[in-house]
Amino acid sequence: MSSAAPWQALDPAPSLWQATAAPLRDLPPLQGDAQADVVIIGAGYTGLSAAHHLAQSGLRPIVLEANRPGWGASGRNGGVITAKFRISFPAIAAAYGRDMARRMYDIALEATDIVSELVDEFGIENAALTRSGQVKAAHNHETLNYAVTEAQWLKAELGDTTMSVLSADQVREETGSDGFVGGVLNAGSGGIHPLNYLHGLASGVIKRGIAIHAETPALRLRREGSGVLVETPGGTVRARQAIIATNSYSDLTQATAAFRTTLIPFRSAIIATDTLSPNLAASVMPTRRTYTETKRMMRWFRMVDDRVIFGGRGAFGKQDSPAAFRALHKAMTGIFPQLSEVPLAYRWSGLVAMTLDSVPHVGRLDDRVLFAMGYNGAGVAMSSLMGRYLAAYARGEAPDVGLLDAARMRRVPFYPLREPAVRMVAGWYQFLDAIGR
């Protein structure tokens, strides 16, 4: 039985991103005592974006990372840039009104735009950002009708011009697969090398004089005088305010453990093939967009450097799951039979933070502590944006964040039962997908 602390957990299985990322300079752990205007716990997209926007405001941030930048979700995700929430915009309008749907739509667009802004700001060319669009490929006519209805609603109610309906033939041309009955193209979405993006953000904020301390878990966070005190293994940080940016990895230390009961961690697994032959690469996803399917246990796929990357929900437990990887491979070859003999080069996974209301949340925990988390599987763009909003809150502003308001975040009832409940729901979804419902 390992006696390692949670933040000293084994590294995840090597990913394609780790194998191809430009190296990040060594970031020494904190030694001694430090002071800052804002101490940020977590050096993922949220934390680094917050550090950047705080520094732009003239505030002095310091960033603490329990492992190294990119160890968590920011380095393990699929690199898909999309303007959406897990709850649809028509559903938001039905529940909260058209004005709220409009605000949430604007936030979603702002999230995709800020990724482009940050890539340009820091010159992160190796992030390989594309905005070539995403195809939602429907596996049956019921889900196709739902996707088409949503696209038509967005155009009629919110003036969206980015969505277009695709026939079965067009989706076949897009994907190289016969497995879909049609789909919808969202022209504003795209893809990115997520770890190069993360490393570029880290390098950029370091060059601007912001300290990032790796291997520096925040062991305790408490109020002290008119500010906060964060204790780490090698020292302390005193600051006026603290930002929690740990998302699904909020259970690593007691400093952020209070957020565990507001999130439902769901393991997302990804596989990547060997490099395809030129002829095969030309036949699979030839338009090089990103793609999702419409099954309940949604799968997504994209091409990167002539490799197929294929990911989805359904992995359980705290470590990589061979069964989940086998299920992903079966799903991939079901969509792309031509890949059945292509070896897999990489298998890895990470945690997605789900919330009860299907949207992330940002704002104040109290007068000294702020947070943003709960990205529900669409976090690359949204977490980058949350850093901007966190900086606004730290300056004393009250940005309009719509349904993302921190006060709306609810605790998970019967929290100890969350894992069996997730397994039960996911198993039911897998059964419905298997019978074509």
From TrEMBL:
GO molecular function: oxidoreductase activity
Keywords recorded for this protein, A-Z: Oxidoreductase
Domain of life: Bacteria
Statement: the UniProt record of this protein carries the keyword Oxidoreductase: yes
Protein name: Glycine/D-amino acid oxidase-like deaminating enzyme
UniProt-listed Pfam families: DAO (PF01266)
PANTHER family per UniProt: FAD DEPENDENT OXIDOREDUCTASE DOMAIN-CONTAINING PROTEIN, SARCOSINE DEHYDROGENASE-RELATED
Gene3D superfamilies named in the record: D-Amino Acid Oxidase, subunit A, domain 2, FAD/NAD(P)-binding domain
SUPFAM superfamilies listed in its UniProt record: FAD/NAD(P)-binding domain
UniProt domain FAD dependent oxidoreductase: residue ranges: 37-392
Species of origin: Bosea psychrotolerans
Cross-referenced InterPro entries: FAD-dep_OxRdtase (IPR006076), FAD/NAD-bd_sf (IPR036188)
GO (cellular component) term, any one: cytoplasm
Signal sequence segment: none
